[in-house]
Design brief:
Blueprint (H helix, E strand, L loop, with lengths): L1 H11 L11 H24 L3 H22 L5 H25 L4 H23 L10 H28 L3 H22 L3 H24 L11 H22 L7 H11 L3 H40 L10 H15 L3 H22 L4 H18 L6 H16 L2
Length: 409
């Protein structure tokens, strides 16, 4: 028996892992890919006017093609691996967006759902493989578990990030700061003895809302608290950085694992007591997240009640109170479209999108039905104005529909 085990181990030493070593550049490319995933999905959905459903179908097909190529490779190939990551980041984001926008599933439910699916995946992975090592991905089954985990991690990161920044009204800057602090805590914990697999996957989930917050900060207009570089410029810049980084890895082989079997052994040795660590970490996260959620919800309800009372006192009897800011932006867009000034129209479209997202946490609790009605009208306007070849007539119709929705939500 001992001879057989030795022979098997010797044979396994000749295998190649299908995933890269986790280095600093790994996390840099991961965050860049996440940001591009966010901006690319928006470009296809809104700028090209494909809509969420068609965008999801296109990106889903591209993702599964890339994943099939990834499974066909015999060892880690940087270009194929990172292309798959970039596409799964888009697809995972779209899964959550479809639940929220098309099926109207609350982000709270999506966050819980993907947390449960992720836990089930980890449990099945460990039951079948007796390890959760992130290094020894050299069988089809392990690779399947790995990519399924990444898909749910992206979907969970999208749901939890959107829950914080939009539904709870924290905004992208505050959300980004909170997430960055959490990543820093897990990174330090990794260095001082926290289970590496546990640390890796929590950081992996958190880099999604961090990348999205970074993208919003760079692309949003200064009026909405961003730097105003725009999605096209940011996407191109980040894509160039990814190409340079991946090319460097392909040429240098800096992230190629030399002995995945040995690294698996080291992971498993460090995993002693991992279950206790997992229970403690999840317990702390639950206390902080649930407590923070209900605290923020109480703040939102109080602010909504105060805003409704102030609106009534000022004579604003509309279901959502004073929407004059959004009416002014809509009027400005309509004037620009009538003058065929699509540059100004796009600028005001960016302004109303950012302002509406920032006001969601305050306005939606006042009257969810009215908020959803106006939200749909705004989405239609954004698609019309941001189309590659905008149509003046349909854009005017969408803007007039939004004016009516704002006057009578």
């Amino acid at each position: 028996m001992e001879a057989t085990i030795t022979k098997t181990q010797t044979n396994l030493r000749n295998v190649f892992s299908k995933v890269p070593e986790v280095t600093a550049l790994f996390w840099v490319i991961k965050i860049l890919s996440t940001t591009i995933g966010e901006t690319l999905a928006d470009f296809l959905n809104i700028n090209l006017n494909l809509g969420l459903t068609l965008t999801s179908v296109i990106m889903g097909v591209l993702f599964f093609i890339a994943l099939a190529i990834q499974f066909k490779t015999k060892k880690y190939t940087p270009v194929v691996y990172w292309l798959t990551v970039a596409l799964i980041s888009v697809f995972g984001t779209l899964v959550t967006d479809n639940l929220s926008d098309n099926l109207h599933v609350p982000l709270q439910f999506s966050t819980i759902l993907f947390s449960i699916l992720l836990a089930i995946t980890f449990a099945a992975w460990y039951t079948k493989e007796k390890t959760l090592s992130i290094h020894s991905i050299f069988t089809v089954r392990r690779e399947a578990f790995y990519w399924l985990t990444i898909l749910f991690a992206f979907a969970l990161g999208t749901a939890s990030g959107d829950l914080m920044s939009e539904a709870l009204g924290l905004g992208y800057v505050t959300t980004g700061i909170i997430v960055a602090v959490a990543i820093g805590i897990f990174a330090v914990g990794w260095r001082v003895g926290l289970n590496p697999v546990l640390s890796f996957w929590f950081i992996y989930i958190l880099t999604r809302p961090l990348g999205a917050s970074l993208g919003d900060l760079l692309t949003q207009s200064p009026v909405n608290g961003g730097l105003g570089f725009g999605p096209t410029a940011v996407t191109i810049a980040f894509l160039v950085l990814i190409i340079i980084s991946v090319s460097y890895l392909a040429l240098s082989h800096k992230d190629v694992m030399r002995d995945p079997v040995q690294e698996e052994k080291e992971d498993d040795q460090k995993s002693k007591g991992a279950f206790t660590q997992l229970v403690v970490v999840i317990g702390i996260l639950l206390v902080l997240s649930i407590g923070g959620y209900f605290f923020r919800e109480h703040q939102i309800q109080s602010q909504a009640a105060a805003a409704a009372a102030a609106g009534s006192a000022a004579g604003h009897s509309a279901p959502l109170g004073d929407l004059s800011k959004f009416t002014s932006l809509t009027d400005a867009m309509l004037t620009a479209v009538n003058n065929n000034d699509w540059t100004i129209a796009n600028a005001r479209a960016n302004d109303i999108e950012g302002a509406w997202d920032n006001a969601q946490a305050q306005l939606q609790p006042i009257n969810p039905t009215a908020w959803t009605h106006v939200d749909g009208a705004i989405d239609k306007v954004l698609r019309e104005i941001r189309a590659v070849h905008p149509n003046q007539q349909t854009a005017v119709a969408a803007l007039q529909n939004l004016q009516a929705a704002l006057q009578n939500p």
